[in-house]
Write a structure and sequence with these properties.
The complex is a heterotrimer.
Chain A: H1 4-37, E1 39-43, E2 46-49, H2 52-59, H3 61-95, H4 98-113, H5 116-127, H6 132-139, H7 153-177, H8 181-189, H9 194-222, H10 226-232, H11 239-249, H12 253-278, H13 282-288
Antiparallel strand pairs in A: 1-2
Helix pairs in contact in A: 1-12, 2-3, 2-12, 3-7, 3-9, 4-7, 5-10, 7-9, 7-10, 8-9, 9-12, 11-12
Chain B: E1 7-16, E2 19-29, E3 34-38, H1 45-53, E4 60-65, E5 68-69, E6 80-83, H2 95-105, H3 110-123, H4 139-151, E7 157-161, H5 169-186, E8 189-194, H6 197-203, E9 206-211, E10 214-219, H7 221-226, H8 231-236, E11 241-251, E12 254-258, E13 264-268, E14 274-280, E15 286-288, E16 299-309, E17 316-321, E18 328-331, E19 346-351, E20 356-360
Parallel strand pairs in B: 3-8, 3-9, 6-7, 7-8
Antiparallel strand pairs in B: 1-2, 1-4, 4-5, 9-10, 11-12, 11-14, 12-13, 14-20, 15-19, 16-17, 16-19, 17-18
Helix pairs in contact in B: 2-3, 2-4
Chain C: H1 6-28, H2 47-50, H3 65-98, H4 104-112, H5 119-141, H6 152-176, H7 180-188, H8 193-222, H9 225-230, H10 237-247, H11 252-277
The chains are: A mainly alpha, B alpha+beta, C mainly alpha.
């Protein structure tokens, strides 16, 4: 057996990578942007502690409106994703058997592994005025000229829902998997209609999956960058774009840091809310995904 | 140098916090002996075995193999090998690689290790199984691989931790005989732990009955069966009838026990004037159709058969007996005048004072 | 519920069509003999893969240094990320499953945080922090520390920050399933601790190690948000694609996308095969 001090040394060495990782890549960087966010420029090259960056956020309509729009649209996207994904997840979990089931699930996952940019390129090619949809409409004579389907909220929502579907289906399917067929049969046996059984038995049982999926989709949507910018153009107006603008274009790091903290706050608040609703811990929720 | 014992435990104590899982155990195992430790779950036998193997360290006391103390010697350096309860065969290796594993650890060349492993597999009846995957074997075959893996290292002592638990009944019966034969063929010392008293009785040269961290009795299977030293041993080993009452008038080892119903029993025991437990084995109870045939017996009663429990050679009768609250259990006669006795039939029963052991409760 | 209605089945078919339509369109138009990635179809060509530029003015991806460099940069980031993720992920998994120490639950929870932090925020935080560190160290050491400025090394760090979490979870899940009596049996048969690790524990873990490595590779290759904030003059593939998609692209971008899809499909198959073998 190892001596006590040899054991201690081993433990220390084993812990070192984790501590370095979390310390240098997570904790300290976030302390840095927290501090930055409170750095006000009082004179050229002179910074002092202040709330100026946050004030700027609340007083400039562009900023807080974009933030509210991002949050609101993300909720809409999450809801749409849930509604669209539910029948699929239900089918995969309850109806499909064996190889069909495995294949359907795998097919859902494949688009996820391909980069977000490829997915967005696909939608651009379909929706833009020189794209497939416009071409088909012209070729069949339904429209005379090219139609632009991009650069509006609809396109952005479409792209975001598409990206989110994959993250909603897996937790939902997992949650629905555990529902005993006998329970559903009992529901019908006692006189329930398909709608009643769905509403009062299936959906409540799937709640942990619904919440897990919703948290993940909301998080990813709110933090998305490429899809709103490419599919929405100037009308995209997603908050992540503001962060990018401040950091990279304007080099106003303190302002960007403040925006980053606000985004983090929004994302964390939703995660925390969702966890409270289901009474689960972060670990178990992530295991659903 | 040849030592008279292969394993010695001297006053071994193991404490977890304030709880003593093993509470002052001492015993010796002779070379070539099949020694079993028998006890219910939680009695400490697994902890004891793990200390011998080297996975736990005694809080105090000594463990010696062939006279050499093993305290401080790590498990991978002891001349002891263990067959685990789950068998712990390595799924990522073939059968041959499993058996050869210990040899390769010792630096034996691949080729020689493989050869010795194959020879050992043949000796346990698994010829040409070397290339097979471990997952493709039946329960009995896995058993033999696990044992071969230990025996190929020619250890001083082989420890077996309830290896037959996962097998079904017929296979278990078969493996009991096989294990016994393997042990005597290789003449290796076996230390076997189990909660199944039938396994211990059939296979062992000597058995230690363990309860709550202590050995209650150590002896040959017959000794334990016919002369239990404590009430625990009397009820744990084999089937028995058990009654509680007040003991009185001890002389020359004879004791009278008065049951709450007023019945008085004559038995063998030491303690008097105490609440006591009286034990009689079912096979010690004689049955007859009329009382005169039992005239010489110290304990004679009459009753009615309440149940016939047929189980082949292990069949028994439950008899509602006058003066006893619970039915008395006797062996079902399958030959002679009482063969074919049915429920409801009247019957006389009796036993000698020698056959009834009395202990203080 | 076990007799799905026709409407339901129709929905599912439509869904999968919807799911794959964009990807199919991207793939098909990689072979379009047109200088623009849009209809109409002008004929089949491999120009956008192997062309030298003589036909449409712009070379195919396998001949274009812009694309080749970009793919190279992606590998330069993904390979170190995958290797480090497996290595450090294994150590972390060991700590989580085998070690006991005060504060272990806190540490375990902290390891999950990177998954709930938006990628953009991960990026800017690391950018800001290492900038400050670089400024400080450069003054002190009187040299340039380009490694800590926006560029590929910083991208590696940014991606590792959350990929490490995923790798750790994958490997820890596998380690938890390990029957420790196998290690005891090996030890009992005379193996040294190192030998037990080498011959019993690691072979058992290997499917998870390979899986974690492949997942890390894929996630690194396709990462955008965090990479965007940390990138310098050398751009990995998604960044280059993004730039082209904003300014106007040739079907070369379709060609690269198709290669990405095939590559992903290939790795996913390897992954599926190794995880079955590990059963």
């Amino acid at each position: 057996m190892m001596t006590k001090s040899a054991q201690r040394l081993t433990l220390f060495l084993l812990l070192a990578p984790a501590i370095l990782w979390l310390g240098l890549l997570i904790v300290l960087p976030h302390v840095e942007i927290l501090v930055l966010s409170f750095s006000e420029r009082v004179a050229p090259r002179v910074y002092a502690f202040g709330f100026g960056n946050y004030l700027e956020f609340f007083t400039e309509p562009l900023y807080w409106r974009t933030f509210a729009r991002t949050a609101g649209m993300s909720i809409l996207v999450t809801a749409l994703t849930l509604v669209l994904a539910f029948p699929i997840a239900l089918y995969i979990a309850r109806v499909a058997q064996g190889r069909l089931k495995a294949m359907l699930l795998l097919l859902c996952l494949l688009p996820f592994w391909v980069s977000e940019l490829v997915r967005t390129l696909g939608w651009m090619m379909i929706l833009r005025e020189t794209g497939v949809l416009s071409y088909v409409l012209q070729a069949t004579g339904l429209t005379a000229e090219r139609v632009e389907f991009l650069y509006n909220d609809g396109a952005v929502i479409l792209g975001l829902v598409y990206g989110g579907l994959l993250f909603m289906i897996v937790p939902l399917a997992n949650a629905l998997e555990s529902l005993e067929p006998a329970v559903v049969e009992a529901g019908f046996d006692l006189g329930g209609s398909r709608w009643t059984v769905l509403r009062r038995i299936v959906i409540p049982h799937a709640m942990p999956g619904i919440v897990a999926g919703s948290i993940i989709v909301f998080m990813l949507t709110v933090g998305n960058f490429a899809t709103p910018v490419l599919l929405g153009g100037k009308n995209g107006l997603w908050f992540t774009e503001q962060i990018y603008a401040q950091f990279i274009t304007r080099f106003n790091w303190p302002q960007g840091a403040a925006f980053g903290m606000l985004l983090l706050l929004l994302s964390s608040a939703i995660v925390w809310l969702g966890l409270r609703l289901t009474g689960q811990s972060l670990g178990t929720t992530l295991k659903q995904a | 140098m040849a030592h008279s014992t292969d394993l010695d435990l001297v006053n071994v104590i193991k404490r977890f916090g304030s709880h003593a899982a093993v509470n002052d155990v001492s015993f010796s195992v002779a070379p070539g002996e099949f020694f079993s430790i028998l006890g219910p779950s939680g009695c400490g036998k697994t902890t004891l075995m793990r200390m011998i193997a080297g996975f736990e360290h005694p809080t105090s006391g000594d463990i010696r193999i062939r006279g050499q103390s093993m305290i401080g010697v790590p498990a991978n350096k002891r001349p002891v090998n263990m067959v685990f309860q789950s068998l712990a065969l390595f799924p990522m290796m073939s059968v041959g690689e499993n058996v050869a594993y210990g040899l390769t650890c010792r630096g034996v060349s691949r080729a020689e290790a493989e050869e010795r492993a194959n020879r050992m597999l043949e000796r346990v009846g698994l010829k040409d199984f070397g290339e097979r995957r471990v997952t493709a074997l039946s329960g009995g075959q896995r058993q033999r691989v696990a044992i071969a893996r230990c025996l190929v290292l020619e250890p001083t002592l082989v420890l077996l931790d309830e290896p037959l638990g996962a097998l079904d009944l017929k296979l278990r019966e078969h493996m009991k005989i096989e294990l016994k034969q393997l042990q005597s063929t290789f003449n290796t010392t076996f230390a076997y732990i189990t909660h199944d008293q039938s396994e211990a009785l059939v296979m062992s040269d000597r058995i230690a009955v363990m309860n709550q961290g202590r050995f209650e009795q150590v002896g040959s299977p017959r000794e334990l069966y016919h002369n239990p030293a404590t009430p625990f041993v009397a009820s744990f080993v084999g089937e028995t009838n058990k009654w509680q009452g007040e003991a009185s008038a001890a002389s020359n080892g004879s004791v009278s026990v008065r049951l709450p119903s007023g019945t008085v029993l004559q038995g063998q025991g030491k303690e008097a004037n105490k609440t006591s437990l009286a034990f009689v084995r079912p096979e010690a109870i004689a049955l007859a159709q009329d009382a005169s045939a039992l005239g010489a017996l110290a304990n004679r009663f009459e009753g009615r058969v309440s149940a016939v429990l047929f189980d082949g050679a292990n069949s028994s009768l439950l008899i509602d007996t006058v003066g006893f609250e619970q039915p008395v259990r006797a062996v079902l006669p399958q030959a002679g005048p009482l063969a074919g006795i049915e429920v409801g039939a009247p019957v006389h029963l009796g036993w000698t004072a020698d056959a009834m052991k009395v202990f203080a409760a | 519920m076990n007799r799905p209605s026709f409407a339901w089945k129709l929905y599912i078919a439509a869904f999968y069509l919807f799911l794959f339509a964009p990807l199919l369109i991207v793939a098909i138009f990689a072979f379009n003999a047109s200088p623009f990635p849009s209809p109409p179809w002008r004929g089949f060509t491999l120009e956008w893969f192997t062309g030298s530029g003589s036909v449409f003015g712009k070379p195919g991806i396998l001949m274009d240094p812009i694309w080749l460099d970009s793919i190279g940069n992606s590998f330069k980031v993904a390979v170190p990320v995958a290797l480090l993720a497996v290595l450090i992920g294994t150590v972390n998994a060991w700590v989580l499953e085998r070690a006991e120490f005060p504060g272990k639950t806190v540490l375990a929870m902290m390891m999950l945080w990177p998954l709930v932090i938006p990628g953009v925020v991960l990026g800017i935080s690391i950018l800001a922090f290492f900038s400050r560190v670089a400024n400080g160290l450069e003054d002190w050491l009187q040299t340039d520390l380009d490694m800590l400025r926006p560029g590929l090394p910083l991208v590696v760090l940014g991606q590792l920050s959350f990929i490490l979490t995923i790798a750790t979870l994958i490997i820890a899940a596998r380690l938890r399933k390990f029957d420790r009596s196998l290690e005891e049996a090996a030890f009992d048969l005379g193996a040294s601790r190192a030998r037990v690790l080498r011959t019993v524990t690691l072979p058992f873990l290997s499917p998870a190690l390979i899986g974690a490595g492949l997942v890390a590779l894929l996630m690194s290759f396709e990462n955008f948000n965090t990479t965007l904030m940390l990138v310098g003059s050398d751009a990995p593939l998604p960044i280059t694609m993004y730039g082209q998609m904003r300014e106007g692209a040739t079907p070369a971008i379709n060609a690269v996308s198709l290669l990405l899809m095939l590559g992903v499909g290939g790795i996913a198959s390897v992954f599926a095969l190794t995880s079955k073998a590990g059963r």
